[in-house]
Design a protein that fits this description.
Elements lengths: L1 H4 L8 H4 L2 H17 L6 H15 L3 H25 L4 E5 L2 E4 H26 L3 H10 L4 H30 L12 H28 L16 H23 L1
Antiparallel strand pairs: 1-2
Length: 253
Amino acid sequence: MIAHTISISPESPFVHRWDPRMKLIGLLLLAFTFSFVSNLRVLPMMIALTLTVVAMSRYPLDLLLRRLRYPSLVILCLIILLPLISGFTPLVEWGGLTVTREGFQAAMLVATRFFCIVTLAAVLLGTTPLLRTIKAMQALGLPYVMADMALLVVRYLEVLSADLRRMRISMRLRGHVEQRWPWRNLSTLAWLTGSLILRGYERSQGVYNAMRLRGYGHQPVSRDEFKAAPADLLALAAVCVATGLLIWLDMTL
């Protein structure tokens, strides 16, 4: 689990030690600014800012590539289709297919925004323990119910994953042979998914009742848990300046 594998020490890079509240505000501000960029000439600066954050955090490149692997498959279809179905100005024609200038530019924008934002999210979640990130959200005003729901979702994703692993082992021990092609296992996967959902529902009812019986309630987060040092504030100010410059370039270039 992410929250258990991150250790922060005085020797860690600054991005790891950055006050979680300031980091959350700074990286979210940067990500939202990226999502509004519409000028292709600003894309190199977006990429440079993202690479700077990655370099400063010393986030492992192989881990980042693994994090981007599955989301990239989703966006890849869109990047391939956009130049073919969007726009009117031909850029390249080959074998009856026409790549349009507008579609190509839209694909460039979508791809760059997507990879920059997902990379920032990976750095945010990969450099701060999840529990500390959620506490920082609470300190910034996130309702405690939403924070608790986020923690329970993360916790029970692991529980469901362990259940799925045990059920697959049990099925194999009872003689089930998984087919090479996934669509041949669709009926089995449907039963497996249904069983997992029912188990999850029953478990959630049990957990909810147990929490109520134990007097589950809200304990305010201590504001003293987080103290922003001057370096934290300076780093946030630098991010604000960078986002302001990005917006100005997007509007003027």
